[in-house]
Protein 1
Amino acid sequence: MQILEDSDRFLVRFEVGEKLPDALIDLARSRAWSSAQITGLGAVKAVTLGYYDLAERKYINHPLAGTVELVGLVGNLAIHEGNPIWHIHCAVADRNGTLKGGHLLTLEVAVTVECWIHVGAKPARRVFDEYTGLNLLDL
């Protein structure tokens, strides 16, 4: 990972083989970030996207084969029970331009992932929401 710091913003390039969101969790933990916004793009593989089924109260996993273009990644960071939690959605396109999207569960950098991270001045936290079964932002 390479990082260019610009005040409260960071331009980050993830290297081949790094895995998200794990590398992002490690970065947030090492920098003691408690809130942030992220956008990114790149080329990735071993992608698993999720769709949250509210009735079932669980994610339906959608693993994708091969290398795909990460055409958009957007998300936020908050703290849950003392740990940094990234909530990220992304869209990926295959070699034919077929687009898939959803909640990012995992991916591995195949070529590069380039992100802007804007760190918040105030902490954000997540708390369990009984209705959804998810840990939602508590603002």
Note: The radius of gyration is 15 Å.
Protein 2
Amino acid sequence: MQERPDAETHDDYYVRVRRQIHEWVEGKGAGHRHAGILLLAPDFLHLLIRLTLDSRVDTKSKARLGAALAYFVSPIDLIPEALLGPIGYTDDLAVACLALNSFLNDPAHREIAREHWQGDEDLLGVIERVLGIASEMLGSRVWAQVKRRFGGGPR
């Protein structure tokens, strides 16, 4: 199977994000109450990329997932990684989970998402867990802004 031209760029970014978060968790972030959740950020990044490239995903869903992906990789967001390091991925993770929560309402989409999910835990359970603590992770004001911009909430 021939790789897409963007596969190498995706893998490099994914590896860089994963390494950055793991180094933080093992150093400055050791013991942080949301370290376990932050370690999931690269898996959600990978999932968003794979779903937006999957030909079985309809255009409307790709647009929503693509918007979450663009937010994830953008250096300009509500909690910037450039200033705060891996803690800055908390809003990206919440946005990804909001988009995926909506996407997974269609049972056919669940199977596609499970095919691409690289995480060790159940995808639906992880999304529900992240959305359940998003206000605590982000602060109620930031969480309200995220929900206003990207819609949704816990399933």
Note: The first helix runs from residue 7 to 26.
